[in-house]
Design goal:
Helix content is 53%, strand content 11%. With 238 residues, it is an alpha/beta fold. Helix 1 (13-28) links the parallel strand 1 and strand 2. It binds ligand LP6JUW53. Residues 7-8, 10, 43-44, 47-52, 90, 92-94, 118-119, 122, 124-125, 127, 212-213, 216-217, 233-234, 237 line the site of ligand LP6JUW53. This is Enoyl-CoA delta isomerase 1, mitochondrial.
Amino acid sequence: MSLQNPPVNSLSLEFLTDICISVEKLEMDKTCRGLIITSSLPKVFSAGLDIMEMYGKSPERCGEFWRAVQEMWLKLYGSNMVTIAAINGSSPAGGCLMSMTCDYRIMADNPRYSIGLNETQLGIVAPFWFKDTMTNTVGHRTTELSLQLGQMYNPAEALKIGLVDQLVPEDQVSHYSHTNHDQVTTPDRSKSMMRKPTIDKLTSKREADIQNFVSFITKDSIQKSIGMYLEMLKKRKR
Ligand SMILES: CC/C=C\CC/C=C/CC(=O)SCCNC(=O)CCNC(=O)[C@H](O)C(C)(C)COP(=O)(O)OP(=O)(O)OC[C@H]1O[C@@H](n2cnc3c(N)ncnc32)[C@H](O)[C@@H]1OP(=O)(O)O
């Protein structure tokens, strides 16, 4: 599955819906042995959630958006397929979350790329299931530090903390993803054993999590922080 939503593969409601439909189709296809997620765009795997979906939108629309974010995570983290993230560019926040849902992460060894949960930089607290996914990936202490600082890691740092599993030359990300994938034929039952408690936690609190997101994101102070972050993103370009 090659992500293609220019300019930065930000995860809008529409794009998230497309991703969910694609994953669902693959999941039902008996001939499909697994899933490699990568990006069709240069330099960016995914810029994470589309910030414009969280800025100046109605509570109803925010709720619909958040349900789609949850759905994407539930589908990928609970997938019965062998999943590999072929991270061929930067992968902040929701992009990092998407990578962490996979069984294995291969990243392009380019020091200009970065990956991590940077929500704190937007004045946002990462939701509990983002935190849980990271804890399951890199452990409690690293997650605590990482979330408090909104830390982004270059590929070498990401490898060191276990946020990615393998670094490869940029032009060989696809090759190594397929090679690794071919070595695993079916997902082991241990995958669902390891992930079920984390998945059940969100499933049982799904509506409350949506309410929490909507009331948090529509607060004036949070809207102001997001507005300032958007300004910073645009200024950084100039
Ligand atoms: C209770 C819980 C409450 C809340 C939880 C909410 C959780 C949120 C998780 C998230 O995922 S929030 C999104 C966080 N994402 C980011 O901070 C990424 C910001 N973007 C970047 O760092 C860079 O754009 C990049 C490294 C991904 C790519 O850099 P580059 O190739 O240099 O592109 P530009 O920076 O020039 O960006 C091009 C264009 O795209 C716009 N843009 C970038 N990221 C986003 C985004 N996530 N959503 C919407 N739009 C984005 C950027 O502003 C530029 O727009 P122009 O109109 O100026 O062209």
